[in-house]
Specification:
The structure holds two protein chains of two kinds.
Chain A (H helix, E strand, L loop, with lengths): L8 E2 L5 E2 L3 H7 L6 H9 L2 E2 L2 E2 L1 H21 L2 H13 L6 E6 L5 H9 L6 E7 L2 H13 L5 E4 L11 E5 L10 H10 L4 E7 L5 H12 L3 H13 L3 H11 L4 E4 L13 E7 L1 H11 L8
Parallel strand pairs in A: 5-6, 5-8, 6-7, 8-9
Antiparallel strand pairs in A: 1-2, 3-4, 9-11, 10-11
Helix pairs in contact in A: 1-2, 3-9, 4-11, 7-10, 8-9
Chain B lengths: L1 H21 L9 H32 L4 H29 L4 H31 L4 H31 L4
Helix pairs in contact in B: 1-2, 1-3, 1-5, 2-5, 3-4, 4-5
The chains are: A alpha/beta, B mainly alpha.
Chain lengths: ~290, ~170
Amino acid sequence: MELSDLIVDFRADGSRHPVEVADAVAALEDAPFASSKRLAERLPQTNGVYDPAGVDGVLLRSHLELQRLAEEVQHGQRVTRLLRPFLDLIDGPKRIVDVGCGLGYLVRYFASTGSLGDDVEVVGFDFNQGLLGAAQKLADIEDLDCNFVAGDAFELETEATLYISSGVIHHFSVPDLPDFFARQHATGAAGCFHFDVAPTWITPLGAWVFHRARMREPLARHDGVRSALRAHTDADLVRSLHEGAPDWEALLFDATGRRMAVLNVMRPVIGMKPDLVGPYRQALGNLARRLS
Amino acid sequence: MIAVVLCVLALVDAAFSGFRAFAGRDGRINKRQAKIEAAGVGVVAGLVALALLAVLFLGGIAAGWYSYDELTSAGRRMLVVYALFAALITVGFGAYFSNALEVRSLGTVLVLGPGTLFRPPVILAGALAAAIGSSAAIGAAAFVAAVVMLSVEAILNRRFSAQLAAHPFG
């Protein structure tokens, strides 16, 4: 289990609830490594309750380091090259919702580069108001036109064209995944692109090397390696998407085992309306060979 | 010549130390100028480290602990280790600045990421190579040089960590 899931409690209504250290430690009772509990015990706290400001600082530093990794693997460009051809198939203004956007790296990247086109609005959703506040400040500093919302990404007043996420879906257990897809499918969106760690044979070692080499915050190192261990298999993702969004076609880009494992860092599971699949393959050009 | 090449490598390494210490502490999308400045701070720290080491080595020669020729001979062995590592990192950067995303990934995943992790042992291996077959005084000086260069990134990390605490949004 990742510590960042345990040390804060933000609810869908926007409220924040105190988290007792003992509860977080108890949730780690079956964690495979004793270091998880030790780290949970050392995080900023007052009278046995995690200190909101201290914990927010830890999470901010961790997410800044995560953004550094995203920059290094050119995550923004990787997402753009798959999203742009899809968006070009849809007429009129488009609205993309980034689920669990954290510091809003992708939202700000798209706003800064304009890589998705002028008629695309990208909105970042997250329950963590501390991270969203930081995301908005970063956007303001660079004068980027970004929109961040604290709350449930699937309860929107305005319909979304597309749902995306990065490194989020491994936070859901396999039994919960169909509901995750069902909720976005129910909004009437045209599709979803959810990027997450690919569980190849080398993923645990690669995650350890990179989080050791690139991250300094102990929580970021811990959660980075744990997330690699929790990554969902291709089969689980495709089955869950079929189950939760039966009217969507389920696709994978760079399915596990189809290319060099070291190159398969983050791969998306893609859901889209069936009538879009053919034109999307055509629009992707040579990259379409990597869809399955 | 050996000393000059080692100094250049040390300054390049210090520049990268500055970049690494800065990276992951600034959430802005566009921060090219800040990255260049961080590398510049690294070079300044590297120059200070080299000045300290120059005092050590020249002082050792003046004190009769070793001769310049003995230092050069040890430096040559040290350079072999560092030049091989530098060549590998150069290949990684070549891939990283390619136009193809997949080639860039190879540079990052196979060379640059692991290279950061292996840098401290490589620096110490260079000192070990210099020490083998040299006097105890040269061996000690080589290890002091390695520790000083390793401490450059640690000091820069503290500097940029303090900067993040004071200005969390750049």
